[in-house]
Design brief:
Largest sheet: none
Helix content: over 70%
Order of helices and strands: HHHHHHHHH
Keywords: DNA-binding, Transcription, Transcription regulation
Number of domains: 2
Protein name: AcrR family transcriptional regulator
InterPro entries: Homeodomain-like_sf, HTH-type_TetR-like_transc_reg, HTH_TetR
Structural class: mainly alpha
Low-confidence stretches: none
Number of helices: 9
Number of strands: 0
Amino acid sequence: MPNATRGSNRGPAAAPENRRALLDAARRVFAERGYRAPLSAIAQEAGVGQGVLYRHFPTRLDLALEVFEQHFVELEALAAEPDAGAFGRLWTRLLELTVEESAFVEMFLAARHDLAETDLADRLPALVAATLPRAQSAGLVSAHLTVADVLLLQRMVYGVVATAVTDDEARDAVAQALALLDGVLEG
């Protein structure tokens, strides 16, 4: 629903408020309609014109990177925890984000050709690489599991989510798929 409380054009003074409104609207619209949702829908939800959106975020990727930056900050905080359980908490939260906000993964897939301009391609593998060895040393996950394996598993989970009809079906299917892998993942 568009923001009906916005007043007349306040020009540059409204820039911080417009930016916040765009980010909030983009989170909602991406969650409901996916990464490829029309940018016009995001501008409308924020109660601003498309020109305002493009002044703040020249490309879809710029907007998505900003929207999902909070996820990276959260995942980085989990990876920074020094105990062996950090990998499990990182993995669990990554799966939750994949199920709850598949647009987060869609952004990676759609932007893979533009990733050279960002650190996006390196951030998630680095978080897994920082936590996986501690979990393996503690016997919490298989010593044979690699960073590439973990990222492949996450992509597989996304495939399950992307082909599910409802959110409940996605959650159930992910749980079932992960149950099939329990013996493979365990140390």
